[in-house]
């Protein structure tokens, strides 16, 4: 464990950053008993962690054994170099998108234009983006393109 001076108390946000997890994931693991639950200040009603609690949570993160004795695996975050773009075959993957754009009033649109817009707006692929988000971003891009033409 890094020899680092701990504060007397830290917030939930600071604690989750210290163990390199999102607040949401941290709270999930607190509910499961993997990490120590925060104390609440009587005066402010805000949750906080004492230095001793911080040490317990950091030890659980480092060893992979929760404070409740449960084994927990933590995935390493990928560096930007490790993230590979998601590629998809444009024509098949964007056929539904073309229909959606046409229903929004872009009747003269071609599959080639949609494919080109996808490469501009989502050069790394859409990943896990929701279909409606993809449709909205492509629609905005094509509308701006038409306005500038």
For the structure shown, list the relevant keywords:
single chain; 149 residues; mainly alpha; 2 domains; three-stranded antiparallel sheet; 7 helices; 3 strands; 48% helix
Q: Characterize the biggest β-sheet.
A: 3 strands, antiparallel
Number of domains: 2
Mean pLDDT: 84
Task: Kindly name the structural category.
Answer: mainly alpha
Query: Which percent band covers the strand fraction?
Result: 5-15%
Number of strands: 3
Radius of gyration: 24 Å
Q: Which blocks of ≥5 consecutive residues have pLDDT under 50? A: 86-90
**What strand line-up does the widest sheet have?**
1-3-2
In which range does the helix fraction lie? 40-55%
Order of helices and strands: EHHEEHHHHH
Instruction: Please give the alpha-carbon distance between the first and last residues.
Output: 58 Å
Give the count of helical stretches. Answer: 7
Task: Give the CA-based shape.
Answer: elongated
Topology record:
Blueprint: E1 9-10, H1 12-18, H2 23-32, E2 39-40, E3 47-50, H3 51-63, H4 90-93, H5 95-103, H6 111-121, H7 131-148
Antiparallel strand pairs: 1-3, 2-3
Helix pairs in contact: 6-7
């Amino acid at each position: 464990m890094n020899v680092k001076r701990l504060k007397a108390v830290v917030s939930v946000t600071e604690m989750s950053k210290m163990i390199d997890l999102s607040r949401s994931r941290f709270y999930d693991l607190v509910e499961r008993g993997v990490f120590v639950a925060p104390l609440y200040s009587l005066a402010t009603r805000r949750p906080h962690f004492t230095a001793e609690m911080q040490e317990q949570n950091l030890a659980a993160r480092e060893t992979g054994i929760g404070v409740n004795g449960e084994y927990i695996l933590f995935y390493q975050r990928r560096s930007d170099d490790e993230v590979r773009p998601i590629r998809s075959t444009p024509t098949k993957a964007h056929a539904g998108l073309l229909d959606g754009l046409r229903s929004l009033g872009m009747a003269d649109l071609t599959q080639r234009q949609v494919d080109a817009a996808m490469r501009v707006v989502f050069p790394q692929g859409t990943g896990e983006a929701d279909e409606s988000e993809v449709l909205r971003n492509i629609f905005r891009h094509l509308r701006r393109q038409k306005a500038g033409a």
